[in-house]
Amino acid sequence: MRAAPSVGMTLPERQHDCDVVQQMLYNASLWNGHRIHFDMPYATEVEGYPGLVVAGPLIGDWLHQVVDEWLGDSGMITAIEYSNRVAAFVGETVTAGGTVTGYDADSGEITVEVFVKNDRDDILAPGVITARLNR
Amino acid sequence: MSGLLSEEVLSHIGRQSEPRREIVTRRDIRKYAVATGNRQTKYLSGDIAPPLFHLHLFWDVVPLNELSPDGVSIDPLLPKFPLDKAMAGGLDITYHRPIKSGDWLTATRTLTDIYEKAGRSGPLIFYEVLMEVRNDNGELVISEKTTRIMR
Asked: What pTM was computed for the model?
């Protein structure tokens, strides 16, 4: 973290390419065999999706990374609340970011509103992360 | 209430999974960190687990012939719901303690609630599962509430 947090401060955004190899490795690492993530005929013809669906918890991980990278070794994430609202598909580029909505200098507690959005500005996953700075 | 939820379905509330104990390895942390596009050395080296690593550690490892045709593992905690189209859900996680390679962790999952609500295009069923992850000293490491919606 380069500067002390303040309410309204925006965190550095990061783009993620929803790459098919990354999807495969991620789902395999979890033991997630859901066909919508790797079986194109199944995803499009049986489930009616426009493409391979990016795993929801991977988008959740990208929410964490916005705050976790910004914190570096200055603190740790203590809680998150988020939901997956809109799907992302392999081949899309999505953007993760956040804004500080609360900071208590005495306790070191920070709250950040985080999001992952697609290139049409649809919010795929909104969330709130709570973190605590090291004392 | 349109009364979609039978006594039988509701009787599953409170059902708990067998505790599962797993070891955190450096290699698993590294694989998870790489697969999620993580850029921080402390995770890529496998020393410390990034947040959400517990999903990797405790995703059910089921035999191939027990997966449903769409490749999904069937959650033994859940009853057969009268609505079966799963919609996106939400997660509410508290991180109590960091996870390091070499830690033994035990997860217990409890089906804590099932309820219905009227949605715009029909009834919706919600269910909540609480997962608690503890270390070998019995200390809480992570608590996670998952809410899922069926339509």
From this structure: 0.95
